[in-house]
C-alpha cells in the first residue's frame, strides 16, 4: 500500500526519500559516520511510511544513476526528502556532492562531470512538481583536499518555491567529522531525535535540530535552513475522525482504509435506497 502524507490542506500523496552516505573516499579523508547516517535516517523515515531509496559508498556513476532513477519515480504532489552525508565543496557559486571515486577530480572543471551538482539535483526534483521537497545536506565535514574555492564548506543555495534546504553548518564553514553517540554525526544525531515526531512541521523539526547542535557545540557549529515552502509540511501527522461522541486519532496513512470503508457504506446505502424505491413502485 502506498504511504501518504499531509500538507496543511490534507492532500494525500506518496512520501519518498533518497538517502546517500559516503565514507570510503579514495583521495580525501575517509569519514566515519556517513553510511550510518544515511541508513539510520532511512530506517526512521521508513517507520513513518516513506518509500525509501538508500545508497552508501557510491561512485559518481552510481550516484548519478540512483538520482535519475529516483527522480523518474516522482509523481506530481509527492513529498520528497533528499539527504546526503559525505564530502561536499563549492566552486563557481555552486555546491557539489562528492562521490567516493574523488581521485578522478583533478581540476575544478572535473566537478561538472565527476561530482553531483546539488543545485541541478534540486531543480530536477522540483521539475517533477512535488508538493514539497526537503533537501538535507550533512556534507560540510572537512575541507576538500583539492580545494576548488578559497571558501570551505558549501555556499548558500536558492530555494525553489516549494522547497526546503537544511545545512549541517553555516555557509562557508565546515563541521568536523565527530560524534556524540559514536555512530552518527552531530547534525544527523539530532535529526534522528526529531524527524519522526508527530504533528510537527519540517520548520519546527529543523528549529529543534539547529538549537540542539548549537547548544552541543557552544555555537561552534550552527546549522541553518532556507525555506521557500508555500504551505505547512508534516512528515508524520495524525488526523482525527469524529465517531459519534468519541474522537479517534489515527495515523494519516490509515486514511485510504477509512475512505474505502466510507465508500462501501455509501454503496450499501445506495443499494438500500434503490430497493426501497423498487418496493414503493410495486405498491
TrEMBL record:
It comes from Adineta steineri. GO terms for biological process: proteolysis. Residues 13-144 form the Caspase family p20 domain. GO terms for molecular function: cysteine-type endopeptidase activity. PANTHER family: MUCOSA ASSOCIATED LYMPHOID TISSUE LYMPHOMA TRANSLOCATION PROTEIN 1/PARACASPASE (PTHR22576), MUCOSA-ASSOCIATED LYMPHOID TISSUE LYMPHOMA TRANSLOCATION PROTEIN 1 (PTHR22576:SF37). This is Caspase family p20 domain-containing protein. It comes from the Eukaryota.
Amino acid at each position: 500500500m502506498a504511504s501518504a502524507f499531509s500538507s496543511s490542506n490534507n492532500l494525500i500523496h506518496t512520501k519518498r526519500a533518497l538517502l546517500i552516505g559516503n565514507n570510503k573516499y579514495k583521495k580525501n579523508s575517509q569519514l566515519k559516520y556517513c553510511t550510518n547516517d544515511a541508513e539510520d535516517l532511512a530506517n526512521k523515515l521508513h517507520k513513518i511510511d516513506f518509500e525509501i531509496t538508500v545508497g552508501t559508498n557510491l561512485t559518481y556513476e552510481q550516484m548519478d544513476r540512483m538520482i535519475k532513477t529516483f527522480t523518474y519515480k516522482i509523481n506530481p504532489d509527492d513529498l520528497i526528502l533528499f539527504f546526503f552525508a559525505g564530502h561536499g565543496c563549492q566552486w563557481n557559486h555552486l555546491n557539489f556532492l562528492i562521490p567516493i571515486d574523488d581521485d578522478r577530480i583533478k581540476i575544478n572543471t572535473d566537478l561538472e562531470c565527476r561530482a553531483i551538482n546539488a543545485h541541478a539535483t534540486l531543480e530536477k526534483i522540483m521539475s517533477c512538481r512535488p508538493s514539497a521537497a526537503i533537501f538535507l545536506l550533512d556534507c560540510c565535514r572537512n575541507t576538500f583536499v583539492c580545494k576548488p574555492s578559497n571558501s570551505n564548506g558549501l555556499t548558500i543555495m536558492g530555494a525553489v518555491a516549494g522547497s526546503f534546504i537544511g545545512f549541517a553548518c553555516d555557509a562557508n564553514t565546515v563541521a568536523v567529522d565527530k560524534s556524540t553517540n559514536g555512530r552518527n554525526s552531530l547534525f544527523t544525531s539530532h535529526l534522528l531525535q526529531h524527524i519522526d515526531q508527530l504533528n510537527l512541521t519540517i520548520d519546527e523539526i529543523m528549529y529543534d535540530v539547529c538549537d540542539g547542535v548549537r547548544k552541543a557545540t557552544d555555537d561552534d557549529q550552527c546549522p541553518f535552513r532556507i525555506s521557500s515552502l508555500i504551505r505547512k509540511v508534516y512528515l508524520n501527522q495524525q488526523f482525527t475522525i469524529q465517531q459519534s461522541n468519541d474522537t479517534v486519532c489515527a495515523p494519516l496513512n490509515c486514511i485510504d482504509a477509512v475512505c474505502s470503508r466510507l465508500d462501501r457504506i455509501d454503496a450499501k446505502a445506495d443499494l438500500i435506497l434503490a430497493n426501497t424505491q423498487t418496493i414503493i413502485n410495486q405498491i
